[in-house]
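Recall that a protein's primary structure is simply its ordered list of amino acids. Everything else, from secondary elements to tertiary packing, is in principle encoded there. The following example makes that idea concrete.
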Amino acid sequence: MCRLLIYAAFALAMVSITAVPAMARLMESGDARIAQQATQAVVNISLWKVRDASAPGESKRRVKVFGSGFIIDPSGIVITNKHVVDGAISTKVILSDGNQFPAKVLGIAAMLDIAVLKIDAGHPLPVLKWGNSDKLKVGDSVLTMGNALAIGLSVSAGIVSGLNRDLQDTPFDSYIQTDAAINHGNSGGPLINRNGEVVGVDTALYNPDQNGGFIGLGFAIPSKSARFVVTQLLNPAHPKPGWLGFTLQDMTPELAAALGQPWHQGSIILAVDAGGPASHAALRPGDVLEAIDDARESDSRAVMRNIVVRPVGSNVTLKIWRDGKEQAVRATIAEWPNLMPGGGMMSPKMASMMAQMVPDPGVKLAPITDEARKQYGLDPKLNGVLIAAVEGDSEARDLGVVPGDVITSIQGEPVTTAAQVEHAIMNAHEQHRPYLAVLIQNKNNLRWVSFSIGASS
């Protein structure tokens, strides 16, 4: 089966998404009340990032992307996904009332897709409360909220379709699967239960088509994991995750029969890291881990979650099956080595340098030819600059700009050549103006769009 997970931070082209019906439950009477209360604490996140060249000979581009988040503290603590803010030059949080504030990154999780931001609104903000994801059952009603496709705050209804899903992102995966819509731009938004509580952080969608949108398979990080990580990130000491230094695989009845073990759920050791706690405890590949301090876990990922939350330096008793019998082994939890908690965040110096780059709206320009007029149905008298192509991850695409559109004026001044358009963008950048007003005509309508120019630090 073709497997493609699409992390839903960025608003991509709606026109490129193949329409696939995704059935979800209808909104119920109680949903409106929950949505009205919860959406006050849901935010849009607008970021400037640098995109690598898409083809040889091209240069890097400064582009604007979007994500979602939610407020958990009146002082302005905002939760989102790590992949939303990774590599950001600057980050801005937009509240439900339209007010916008620059955001500071307080912490980024080393191994879970979670980041914590801080804004200063000058007054207490509405918040969402954490719910207990352990109480979720398949079939429970949920709502997703976020900046879907960068068109603004959206709410979708659905159910919990599955639990403890393994997306093979981390050794701890325990994703909630839902048919409530999660589209590009939803990343970092909340998954809400019938009590209006956050039971998950929307993170990814599944679609075998790389350019596709939601087809009924969305995934969220359980609130139990997210809340633990957020608490750690907000702790000035930033406690390190616990580690024993082995790689595990789920046990099967067939493996149990081969090893002469009475079948029950457990994990078998694949490899042991040299010099790690498991190695010091004389654990070895082929040992079957049955319990940690008498706690039997359902699978290898649950075992790793049990370990990672334990304090560094604490001792655990591991019940293992080896050589046809059960044995007890003592081991000491160590720090997870080689962590990079900064993720893809840029240093302030690098971000400042990148912010000096002239932004690229993500369009390729060309003169209007007779062939183009015929292809796109353009008026023979129309003058301007043809948009010949639009990048898939560009702000232009997010604004609904498509090939065949024609730029007729910028800031009220007519343009007829690509050089004039580029000159106008350069001037706006040098003048530190935040936006550029562009008048666009196609065969159906005429409209203004605002291309972003500035990147606040």
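The longest strand covers residues 61-73. The chain has ten helices and 27 strands.
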